[in-house]
Specification:
Layout (H helix, E strand, L loop, with lengths): L19 E4 L23 H17 L3 E4 L16 E4 L2 E4 L8 H13 L5 E3 L10 E4 L2 E6 L7 H9 L3 E5 L12 E3 L5 E3 L6 H10 L4 E2 L2 H5 L6 E2 L3 E5 L3 H9 L3 E5 L2 H4 L10 E2 L9 H5 L14 E5 L2 E4 L4 E4 L2 H4 L8 H11 L14 H12 L3 E5 L2 H20 L7 E5 L8 H5 L4 H4 L9 E4 L4 H7 L4 E6 L15 H11 L3 E5 L23 E4 L11 E5 L1 H4 L15 H14 L3 H18 L6 E5 L5 E5 L6 H10 L2 E2 L1 E3 L3 E4 L7 H16 L3
Parallel strand pairs: 1-2, 4-5, 7-8, 10-11, 13-14, 18-28, 20-21, 20-22, 22-23, 23-24
Antiparallel strand pairs: 1-15, 3-4, 6-7, 9-10, 12-13, 16-17, 17-18, 19-25, 24-25, 26-27, 27-30, 29-30
Helix pairs in contact: 10-18, 11-18, 19-21, 20-21
Length: about 675
């Protein structure tokens, strides 16, 4: 009998998520009145010590990589230090507090003004009484809401309407725990810690059903406001006066970070009371500014910092392994650091890496010859990035239109598709309909006509004597892996042929084996006039791109009309040639087809169980999530916690593009983690 060892999967560990907080320094903090059982105006407060403890708390957050924004304190409002009560910021909805006691009433206006001044508007105000995150705690895609002492029960419905999230009412019955955040702490999107006697019997039953594995606090730790903590999913910043709770959190895989807030406890508040989390539309505000303060904030990355990678796996700086199901948007088709590609790069590095095109190199012609053969074309224009390849193809198409087709100078038109993604240069965003990519970057480049993707009739109607090209993605990637109907590309090919128009296929993501064929166009028996290639052409080592066409198209370029210092450099040519050689026998394409069939079979099992639909070909999939599951970013974060890396797009869609070296067992494990990730929201 043969015993097969199970596939090795990484141990599930707690993954921190970079957060953004608002805090108000306690420069005016005193206890002048009593509005909760903790407050005693006869007990003196050491304001200097309170400030020192607050500063230490802020330093702890910043040392963990989080961003802290300071809210200006106001004279006469000593409790402003408890910033969590100032409002609720979730999924782009910012709601300022409406306090129960007149002593704190003006704080609501100050927090509302601060939210607006710091770009968190529009700011909503509820009709009913509510005290922000003191009584509204976000747990994944839902909100736990406290009532009984401060926030009115009727206001829960207002919060649900404003945030679009389900709100679960919990009744507090012990006056010591007058806010929800004094009796319950959120550890991550699925787990809480709480003190059951603080709640009514019905609410205890609700919590036991929702969170059967919750961490339960002792009376001693709850009485020290041990549950008034702040967790980033791994680190739990908490009082140093709750040792049993700290031990329980360690057992659950969290790392307690203990601080002293004894002075602020005199006002009835702890760590969480002093900390208001700011969540933007992607659940974080300025995440990049916290983790990478010197990097332009043009990405919103997952909270994973890669240190090493090999094959289909990435290892982070803490030694945790992740199955890479994104593959750098197809740039790592052959896995991270494929030995054959690395060897080719190292060999070339030892000889010559860059000459510019002012001189010939031994590597360029062999690379271009091999790539032209793979594409069934005559010539190659080597460039660097995918966007450069698309820009170059547009230039070539216009020049071809003027020199060959006879279009009047300056009148050339290129037809493009709605929902396209070809890069983010000025000309490319000029024909994008993605507001994030386009808005704020005008004036735009003219000469483009956009029609709906998948509508060949619209292309037929748009073509005229000035049309020089139709530029399309055979399968739209950024749009959510949109696969057209079977007659679409053949009809586009026929229209281009009949009207003497170039068909340009952007195969930057879909090409070079990703979909189970060398090029996605081949699924429909279509050969374009021009290919634009990139991403996988660089083997995951460096940027390599190309425009590939016959000589009657690329031959319109003459010296000085187009170029690139790095385009076709010896190192890039050596790497690109290796990639082309690897694809020559078709084995990678067959592997992608076979594994892709298995991937889509497994993903299809999730339809109706948190997933609405699955699309794609080969090892490329777009997964539409049910609304109740949460956003695509939410699910990607849950997947990262389970050791799988994926990327969201357009709010509620996931994209998978794992390296072609992935195994059947690894696909099964990844889909199992996805099933758990969508199930965990219910």
């Amino acid at each position: 009998m043969t015993i097969t060892s199970p596939a090795r999967v990484p141990a599930i560990t707690r993954v921190p998520r970079v957060r953004t907080y608002a805090m108000t320094p306690p420069v005016h903090f005193t206890v002048q009145y009593a509005i909760n059982p903790w407050m005693d105006p006869t007990t003196p407060v050491d304001t200097d010590r309170a400030i020192a403890q607050w500063l230490r708390l802020r330093e702890v957050y910043e040392a963990l990589g989080h961003t802290v924004h300071a809210v200006d304190p106001q004279p006469g409002l000593p409790d402003m230090v408890y910033a969590a009560n100032g409002g609720l910021s979730v999924a782009g909805a910012t709601i300022a507090a409406r306090f129960a006691f007149p002593e704190r009433g003006p704080e609501g206006d100050h927090y509302a003004d601060w939210f607006s001044a710091n770009g968190l508007g529009p700011v909503h105000r509820t009709d009913g009484i509510q005290e922000g995150e003191g009584d509204f705690l976000v747990v994944g895609d839902r909100i736990l809401a406290g009532t009984g002492f401060r926030t009115h029960r009727d206001t829960h419905a207002e919060i649900a309407a404003l945030t679009g999230r389900p709100v679960i009412t919990l009744e507090l019955v012990d006056p010591r725990f007058y806010h929800l955040d004094t009796a319950l702490g959120v550890l991550d999107d699925d787990l809480i810690a709480y003190y059951p006697p603080a709640f009514s019997p019905h609410s205890q039953a609700v919590l036991a059903e929702l969170f059967p594995t919750a961490v339960i606090a002792t009376d001693a730790d709850a009485s020290a406001l041990g549950l008034n903590f702040v967790s980033d999913g791994h680190h739990v910043v908490m009082t140093d006066a709750a040792p049993a709770l700290a031990d329980a959190l360690r057992t659950a895989g969290f790392e307690p970070v203990c601080v002293e807030l004894s002075e602020l406890l005199k006002g009835g508040g702890g760590v969480k009371c002093c900390t208001l989390e700011l969540r933007g539309t992607d659940e974080e505000v300025d995440v990049s500014s916290a983790a990478e303060p010197h990097v332009a904030h043009n990405y919103s990355p997952l909270p994973v910092t890669a240190a090493t990678a090999e094959g289909a796996w990435i290892t982070d700086v803490d030694g945790r392994r992740y199955l890479d199901c994104l593959g750098a948007y197809s740039a790592v088709n052959f896995g991270h650091r494929h030995p054959r590609i690395v060897a080719a790069a190292l060999d070339q590095i030892g000889r010559v890496t860059l000459t510019s095109r002012a001189f010939r190199s031994t590597e360029l012609e062999p690379f271009c010859a091999a790539l032209a053969t793979l594409c069934g074309k005559d010539m190659v224009l080597p460039m660097n990035t995918g966007a450069e390849a698309v820009e170059s193809a547009i230039k070539v198409a216009r020049k071809w239109g003027y020199d060959v087709k006879g279009v009047a100078d300056g009148r050339a038109k290129v037809i493009v598709a709605g929902g396209n993604f070809h890069g983010r240069t000025i000309s490319i965003v000029s024909f994008s309909d993605d507001p994030d990519a386009r808005t704020g970057f005008g004036p735009y480049t003219p000469g483009f006509v956009q029609v709906p993707y998948g509508d060949a009739d619209a292309i037929a109607a748009a073509i005229d004597d000035e049309t020089v090209a139709v530029l399309l993605e055979p399968i739209q990637g950024e749009a959510g892996i949109i696969v057209p109907s079977d007659d679409y590309l053949p009809r586009v090919r026929a229209l281009c042929t009949n009207h003497n128009v170039l068909m340009i296929a952007d195969e930057i993501q879909s090409g070079l084996g990703r979909t189970g064929t060398t090029f996605a166009c081949a699924h429909w028996g279509v050969e374009p006039d021009v290919y634009t290639l990139g991403k996988a052409l660089g083997g995951g080592i460096l940027p390599v791109s190309a425009v590939v066409a016959d000589s009657d198209v690329l031959g319109v370029l003459h010296p000085g009309e187009h170029g690139s210092t790095f385009g076709g450099n010896p190192l890039a040519a050596a790497v690109g040639h290796t990639v082309v050689d690897m694809l020559a026998d078709g084995s990678w394409q067959r592997r992608a087809a076979d594994l892709g069939a298995h991937l889509h079979t497994r993903l299809g099992e999730l339809v109706g169980n948190g997933v609405i639909a699955v699309r794609g070909l080969g090892l490329w999939a777009g997964i539409d999530l049910e609304p109740g599951v949460g956003t695509g970013k939410d699910v990607c974060l849950r997947l990262a916690e389970r050791g799988v890396l994926a990327k969201d797009t357009h709010g509620s869609t996931l994209r998978l593009a794992p390296p072609l070296v992935i195994t059947t067992e690894e696909i099964d494990w990844a889909v199992d983690q996805l099933a758990e990730a969508v199930r965990s929201s219910s």
